[in-house]
Each structure stands twice: as structure tokens, then as C-alpha cells.
Amino acid sequence: MIAIVILNWNGKAMLEKYLPCLIKNTGKEAEIYVADNASTDDSLEWIANNAPQVKTIRLEKNWGFAEGYNKALKNIDAEYYLLLNSDVEVTEGWLEPMLSFMESNPEAAVCQPKIMDMYDRNKFEYSGACGGYLDKHCYPFCRGRILNVVEEDHGQYDTVFNIAWASGACFMIRKKDYWETGGLDGRFFAHNEEIDLCWRLRMKGRKIFSVPMSKVYHVGGATLPKSNPQKTYLNFRNNLTMIYKNAPQFLLGRVMRERLVLDYIAALTFLFKGKKDDFLAVIRARRDFHKWKHSFDKDREEIQKTRVEGIPTSWSDFMYFSILWRFYVNRQKTFKELFQRRTPLFPIHSYFQWRI
Description:
356 residues, alpha/beta, 11 helices, 13 strands, globular
């Protein structure tokens, strides 16, 4: 019924540390797969000798996160895929709440658990926390993480909640939804690809949820640390590409103009902090986005054409405010604080309320 799929690239140390826990805490309703992106360590040999019940898929080269999963999942038949990072420690009973929720809610395409920090176990983890959103400029933030501020978990988000995107660190999706929406965009290689997929799903009328009754712990940054210039490059390039693919026409120009200013402010901030490589990564990301954006024209046309009638033109994926303004000017640094001075938690479905 469930295929738990770990994409691995030279991750033997992570597999040694966290795969035994996954095997121990996974019942008969799921099969575990490791798809290997042409590792040069002996990851597959270690699995064969120490975890023979885990199925393996050997890919011929390093396809990256997005296309690696696409290649691997084509070889797997299951009602649900659960994409899981190799640096995730699952907990006892972690799988059942997500499966039960998906079985009881056919409108749900994707769900994620509560994702906690491996090394500061009372805090949410940066990459997904308790479910993600986008602000009016398509900057991602989470229930439990606003920009670089990560909250402690006091049960404040312990309710099932409709979210805009679920973290690829631990991500359950129906096979049918995955392939009908085209899967992850392999051109992204890594970063923002799960947000892009969730956006496309929501425009088709499907829903994304956080199911915090399930809990996992994530190391984070196991492939690329947060300060890595290559990660900066991929995040900026792919985020702009995601906007170009998915944003409705009446918002696209405005968002792109405002992002032009904000991205160069971000680049200069890196430079003033002495992070020259990150500065150059932002400049290169914007340059490369403009070089390749028209290769996504057909994708954009198809996405806009197939949007389900009655689904708000992206408002279901955006909050109506600027997260940068609320964080740096209003000093609102937790998810709950974002909504204390203004209107409700839910996005405002009106163009005239598209404001700071």
C-alpha cells in the first residue's frame, strides 16, 4: 500500500544511523526502498549485508533530488509514495496517522508529519516544521519557522491543518496525484521542487495537509548546508522558475518586478556580510533563470489552462502579506504573531487586499 522511498547519494553514514530505526518502526503496510543516485561509496553493499529486507533501485547517474525520485518511482507500484530523506529519524507509530488521514480524506493529495530538529529536539526543524506557506512574493515560511527563527514546540500547532506545501524531507503523496500532475520537475535538480509540485496540485483542486500526530526528527543540511552558495543558487533560481510556471498572468509581472528589487537587496546583504560567494550565487541564479525561463513556456501554458474552475488564482497558495515586512518591520517572528494585528489566518481572496 505504501512505498517508503529514500533517495541516496553517498549517504552510507546516514543509512547506517537511521535506516535501522525506520525498519523497526515501519509495519507491514509499507515496503522500504532505497533509490541510489550512482553513489561512489558502498551504500548498496551495506544495505545488502545489513538490511536485506530493504529493496534497492540502482540509478545510472546522479539525477538530483527531483529527477532521481521520478526515475525511481517509475519502478515502484504502490497506492502511496512516501518520500523520505536519509537523515530522518522516525518515531514509533509515525506512519499510521498519515495513512489514516489520507484514507479518510480523499481530497488530500499530500500530507507531512511534524518535523523536529534532530539535535535540538524541542524545536521544529527548518526545512518543513509543521507545514509550509508562501507569502505574496513566494518566499516560503512554515508553521514553526519564520525565515531564520525556529520555534520550540509547545503543542501550539498540534492540529491537522490545510497548508500550501509539504516538505520533501518527509512527504506522503498518492501515486495517482503524483503522476497526473507530472511529478517533481527534474529540471530543478534540488530545492523548491516539492513546493512547485504542491502548487500545481492545489491549482487542480487537490489539498495539502500537515498531520502533526505523526512526528519525525530531521538532521537537515545533510547534502548541502544552509550557508552553501550552491544551495543559495538553486533556491533563488528555482523559486523564480516556480513563480514563472505557476503564478497567474495578472500577478506575474508585479511579483517579478518586486522580486527583482528584493533579490538584489538579498545579494547586497550577502556581500556586506562578507559572503561573496552567496552574493555571486544570487546574481548567477537570476541570470540563469532568464536564460532558461522560456523553456518553461509550454509548462506555464498547460498549468494555467488546466486550472480547475473555481479554484482561486493562486490565492490558496499565498498569504496576502510580505513575510519580510512582517518579520523585519513589524517584528513578528513566530507564525502565530503574523496574524495578531491583522485579519484571519486564511488568505484573502481579493486583489485589492494584496498588500503588505
